[in-house]
TrEMBL record:
Gene that produces this protein: LOC108825541
Record-given protein name: NEDD8-specific protease 1
Domain of life per record: Eukaryota
Similarity-based family: Belongs to the peptidase C48 family.
PROSITE patterns named among the record's database cross-references: ULP_PROTEASE (PS50600)
Alphabetical keyword list: Hydrolase, Protease, Thiol protease
PANTHER family: SENTRIN-SPECIFIC PROTEASE 8 (PTHR46468:SF1)
Keyword Transmembrane among UniProt keywords: no
Transmembrane as UniProt keyword: no
InterPro entries xrefs: Nep1/2-like, Papain-like_cys_pep_sf, Peptidase_C48_C
Residue ranges occupied by any Ubiquitin-like protease family profile domain in the UniProt entry: 16-177
GO terms of molecular function: cysteine-type peptidase activity; deNEDDylase activity
Amino acid sequence: MANTWGDDKILSYNDVVLRRSDLDILNGPNFLNDRIIEFYLSYLSTLHTSPTISLIPPSIAFWISNCPDPESLKDFMKPLRLLDSELVILPVNDNLNVELAEGGLHWSLLVYYKEANSFFHHDSFMGSNRWNARQLYRAVSPFVSDGDAAYRECSDSPQQKNGYDCGVYLLANAQVICKWFSSGGVKNRDELWLGDVKETVPDVANHLREEILGLIKRLMSEKSVSK
């Protein structure tokens, strides 16, 4: 059976394959899917090339959080080498069904910063992913530290104004935090990137759908010219 129009592949970028339906998601007031989240995190990894930054794809973060076998998880985590990372970016999704691909209704962001040996949870919808973030924190903590890392709920994180922009805020937070880290940041352990997030994320989020659409179209054009 031939692919429908929305299933047409439009771009392969690193390990991510985008489809035409992803453009529709970005054009409208829609919940961002796993592919778009993974694409933009992959793009951020090309902007911030320090080997001490790890941007974890949604599917990997989900498996870490929900893997039922601790021994399998140990083997799975080895190639990620998170102990070598100073900054780890982890998408959080509220899907609890490991058999349901791209499930869930809400995205948020969990960040580990080695210098503070702490995890920070940024949730743009009244902390509704708090339980899921703590589950991921408990699962990943032994692989980034001695298991004694602290957890902080960032209750003053900028909040979305609607019911569908949680993924946009996840990516806006990731963008701002990676930029803070790459620029040297404020090394005050209490402030870190929190001031930058509070000040700039709302404006970044307002323009991010358009930015990602423009980025995809530019990459599509560049690949077309290079053929």
